[in-house]
Amino acid sequence: MTADATKVRGLLELAEIVRERRALGHRVVFTNGCFDLLHRGHTRLLQQARELGDLLIVGLNSDASVRRVKGPSRPVLSEEERAEVLSALASVDYVVLFDEPDPGSTIAALQPDVLAKGADWAKDQIVGRETVEGRGGRVVTIPLVEGSSTSGIIDRIREQGRRHE
């Protein structure tokens, strides 16, 4: 890995880092996703999430998790590639992979102060909301960037390929 490989951590190690940082008075922010074919919608979400606290942790769906959520043709990029790209971003402090379809157990283990998700999620449907709000934290939805989606990019690539056949 050429990006900052030290940003990719296991859950137990990261939970300890969170405890240490919280003891210093730092606010911990968590967001999650597949982050397949990183685009400006992703980078804006991550930048805005980072502004909500002192430490941004990104939960990254593993390849198996992405396949369960998005179907057998996804992800386009492997979890190693996606983790490396996320690690290269200044807004991201740590990346943690999870195999489950949702990050509920990861959020429970990390106990973030802020949970940030794209506004395509209704607050009452955001996994981990009860955990975060139950400890006095908050859930924040971040506006989407119109026309920025991985599925849309894949569709455009396929369409252009069909036009050039």
Please provide a written account of the structure.
The chain is of the alpha/beta class. The protein has one domain (5-163): 3-Layer(aba) Sandwich (Rossmann fold), CATH 3.40.50.620. Helix content is 41%, strand content 17%. The protein contains seven helices and five strands; from the N terminus they run H-E-H-E-H-H-E-H-E-H-E-H. A five-stranded parallel β-sheet has the order 3-2-1-4-5. Helix 2 links the parallel strand 1 and strand 2. It is globular. The chain starts with 10 loop residues before the first helix and ends with a helix. The model has no long low-confidence stretch (mean pLDDT 91).
Indicate the overall shape: globular
Instruction: Write down the secondary-structure element order.
Output: HEHEHHEHEHEH
Q: Which oligomeric form is depicted?
A: single chain
Uncertain regions: pLDDT < 50 for 5+ in a row?
Answer: none
How many structural domains can be distinguished in the coordinates? Answer: 1
CATH hierarchy: architecture: 3-Layer(aba) Sandwich
What is the CATH topology classification name? Rossmann fold
Extended strand count: 5
Helix content: 40-55%
- CATH homology group: HUPs
Structural class: alpha/beta
CATH class category label: Alpha Beta
Quote the average pLDDT: 91
Strands of the widest sheet, in order across it, are: 3-2-1-4-5
Largest sheet: 5 strands, parallel
Helix count, per DSSP? 7
